[in-house]
């Protein structure tokens, strides 16, 4: 069995992102949402995710933008974020071991919680 190492390069980020989203696309629960929203724009989405994680984990500032707005109108709930996190953790743990791998999981969890909170907030304020 191969010895796992930490995330150290853009190539590692690409491996994480590509592996993760290949599983997301096939997932029965969250896959249809991603596939419908992203449609034929997977290459652009993956490129954006490489830059996002490169900026967060490697502190190489290649991402600019606001990650939340594209998610604001999605038909998703906490259960969708839970499944997203489950796949992210499993993917990260299968590929990497080390402080940056742990940081990736922590950042993903914080982002999922914040996005879920903000989506719920926007839905509730629209109803009132």
What's this entry about, in short?
By secondary structure, the protein is mainly alpha-helical. The protein has a single domain (10-127), classed as Globin-like. It has helices spanning 10-26, 31-38, 42-58, 78-95, 99-127.
Helices, strands, pairings?
Blueprint: H1 10-26, H2 31-38, H3 42-58, H4 78-95, H5 99-127
Describe this protein's structure.
The chain has a single domain (10-127), classed as Globins (Globin-like, Orthogonal Bundle), CATH 1.10.490. 17% of the residues are buried. 70% of the residues lie in helices and 0% in strands. The longest helix is centred in the last third of the chain and has 29 residues, at 99-127. Helix 1 crosses helix 2 (31-38), helix 1 (10-26) crosses helix 3 and helix 3 (42-58) packs across helix 5. The model has no long low-confidence stretch (mean pLDDT 91). The chain starts with 9 loop residues before the first helix and ends with a helix. The protein is mostly helical. It contains five helices and no strands. It has helices at 10-26, 31-38, 42-58, 78-95, 99-127.
